[in-house]
Model the fold of this input.
Amino acid sequence: MIMSGSLSLPAFRYGGKNEGPRLLITAGVHGDEYLPMLAVHHLVQHFAGNPDEADSIRGSLTLIPVVNESAFIEGNRCGSDGKDLARTCPGNPDGTTTERAAAALSAEIEKADYYVDLHTGGTELSVLPMSGYVLHSDEAILEKQRNLARAFQLPFCWGTSGELEGRSLSVARDAGVPAIYVEYLGSHREVAEATAGIDGGHPLVHGCLNVMRHLGLLSEKECTSVAPESVEDSRPDSGHMQVCHPAPATGFFNSCVALGQQVEEGDLIAQITPPGSANPLEVRANRSGKVLVLRDYPRINQNDATAVIAEPYPNT
Ligand SMILES: [Zn+2]
Done:
């Protein structure tokens, strides 16, 4: 369905009375990634209960718990128009529902000074908790992104190609806004945590608050208790999680490695057994490194990603 007129995203805004940076934090670019939405909601509830703290923020904070509402209503990665918002940016204010949400998000990113976009692996993938950023051609922006990624205090940081298009981070890159994305589990692992409910101690909530401390929005001292492992990969398709180690056929999936495991090139990482076949097909690691993303669902389509392995490149 094509609609016209700009769409406004449900946003919560704080601060603005004191000098400081404008920080944007979003969740729900994909409609089936619930932990980040709950984390942002937790922050909304936190500031509702602590209005003095919200008022005293230096600079400003904008929280958007669900960017693509139609994808959330569908319970899917994509909106009701079948589009993935993270392939649709900068969008079109007169386009389909996802294109309009992408345009509204792009406008929010362009007026921010820093941006954090929260994700998970969705229904079928699990991702090692990590902060990611693009290898920006501007060294000053790149260094700010590295620092933001560390400040989020998840165990892994991953810098990848700046050449991928259509993402929220592509909009930030083009606008010169330092930005990170965050990934945190997915599949049944995410559902178990999300169903139990999250509190202020959850790493996604803690990470957002720590980025606020890092940028000076909150007066508390930044927490630096986690020293994340960091890998940068400058190859042009690095960071495109949906294309790595594709399944040779549609069938039953079982993984032969664990999330976070160190593997060597040639190691068996997954088996795919087409229904009606007695013999599993093999997927072997095409590089050495840490298993950053792993399929976590018993069925797979041909060419879907089975795993992403993080490997430094160039190797130094
Ligand atoms: Zn996502």
Notes: Residues 29-30, 33, 119 surround zinc ion (CB under 6 Å). Residues 34-49 form the longest helix (16 residues). The first strand starts at residue 12 and ends at 15. The chain has a mean pLDDT of 95.
